[in-house]
Inverse folding.
């Protein structure tokens, strides 16, 4: 089972540069085995072209490295914090994709300007507050990054908003599986790109009408969803 978990994480990590979401080694993906409380994550600083399934590092929810000779991603504490807080997710992706990261660096949410956005998010893609100097410099920066994300979701359902922009940093996405988290990461970059182009065309553009947001989100999500084929969404 853990070999399969490592392969799942490996394939998700390979998908990130293939989807144009990664430059250099910026980013990582992780997949969790909830029954064992163990997740697999990319090793720190390893080029994607050099990755193999056996390089994936296994970490438990207490932060112990349980398998692997390489150091796990420096973002591992953030992934761990999110796995603890968001019990329904099975995978996490972090990228520095260009357009989504531009919104994050500006500290701006991505408003829902159209139905593409509404297919994935039930409103704005949220952005965290800026982290404080103490949170950045207390020696637990990556864990505190997770904390500020969790704080942002105090009144939001992570299933309705499966991504966040970390202020001055970049996006994190999640899903029921790590493959779904990759899909969300692709969608976030696409949505952010279209939002920037839309704002160039119409700087005073307003968000999508609530009725259209409801229709497009709920036809794919929740008990009344009817998009796609039975059993695969």
């Amino acid at each position: 089972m853990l070999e399969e978990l490592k392969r799942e994480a490996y394939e998700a990590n390979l998908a990130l540069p293939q989807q144009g979401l990664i430059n250099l080694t910026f980013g990582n993906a992780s997949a969790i085995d909830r029954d064992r409380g163990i997740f697999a994550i990319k090793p720190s600083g390893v080029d994607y072209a050099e990755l193999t399934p056996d390089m994936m590092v296994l970490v438990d929810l207490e932060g112990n490295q349980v398998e692997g000779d390489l150091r796990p991603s420096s973002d591992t504490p953030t992934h761990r914090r999110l796995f603890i807080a968001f019990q329904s997710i099975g995978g996490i992706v972090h990228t520095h994709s260009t357009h989504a990261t531009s919104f994050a660096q500006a500290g701006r949410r991505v408003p829902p300007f159209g139905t593409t956005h509404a297919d994935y998010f039930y409103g704005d893609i949220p952005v965290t507050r800026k982290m404080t100097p103490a949170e950045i410099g207390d020696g637990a920066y990556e864990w505190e990054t997770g904390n500020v994300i969790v704080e942002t979701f105090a009144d939001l359902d992570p299933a309705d908003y499966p991504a966040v922009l970390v202020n001055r940093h970049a996006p994190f996405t999640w899903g029921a599986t790590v493959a779904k988290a990759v899909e969300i990461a692709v969608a976030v970059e696409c949505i952010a790109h279209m939002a920037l182009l839309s704002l160039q065309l119409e700087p005073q553009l307003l968000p999508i009408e609530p009725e259209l947001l409801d229709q497009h989100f709920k036809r794919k999500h929740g008990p009344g969803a009817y998009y796609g084929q039975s059993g695969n969404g």
Remarks:
- The two ends are 25 Å apart (CA to CA).
- The chain has a mean pLDDT of 95.
- The beta strands are 27-33, 38-41, 57-60, 65-67, 91-95, 163-165, 171-175.
- The longest strand covers residues 27-33.
